[in-house]
Amino acid sequence: MTNVPSIARIWRGRTKPEFADEYEAYNRAVGIPPLLKTALGVQLLREDREDETWFTTISYWADMESMTAFTKGDPQQVHHLERDAELLCELPERIQIHKIVVPPRLR
């Protein structure tokens, strides 16, 4: 596997503001670690709005094969965490897969 990501796997979910801190901590403890062990990189983003908080998880992969091996099947299939139904406003139905056209360049 190369160290240059060519694919991003993007999950988005939203929660009520009163559950946002709890969901962030839960996702960091349960959802993010498996990605950190396998993906080339991972970002967890949080957007606090007035009536809801959105979370976006982006994982970076060398190719579709490595992503498919991690998900053990369809990479667009959502694998919900145990408490997602309790903490999220609704269960996301799909994962977005994006080809990385211009990789990030940090200074």
Using brief descriptors, characterize the structure shown:
four-stranded antiparallel sheet, ABM domain-containing protein, alpha+beta, 28% strand, single chain, 107 residues, 3 helices, 4 strands
* Rg from alpha-carbon coordinates: 14 Å
Mean pLDDT across residues: 92
As a percent range, the share of helical residues equals 25-40%
> What class would the helix/strand composition place it in?
alpha+beta
Oligomer: single chain
Major sheet summary line: 4 strands, antiparallel
Distance between the termini: 25 Å
Number of helices: 3
- List low-pLDDT spans: none
- What gross morphology would you assign? globular
Strand content: 25-35%
Q: Give, in order, the helices and strands.
A: EHEEHHE
Sheet with most strands: strand arrangement: 2-3-1-4
What is the tally of beta strands?
A: 4
Write up this protein.
This protein has 107 residues and is of the alpha+beta class. The chain is 32% helix and 28% strand. It contains 3 helices and 4 strands, in the order βαββααβ. Strands 2-3-1-4 form a 4-stranded antiparallel β-sheet. The two termini are 25 Å apart. Residues 14-78 form the ABM domain.
Layout of strands and helices, then pairs:
Elements: E1 7-15, H1 17-38, E2 41-48, E3 53-61, H2 64-71, H3 84-87, E4 96-99
Antiparallel strand pairs: 1-3, 1-4, 2-3
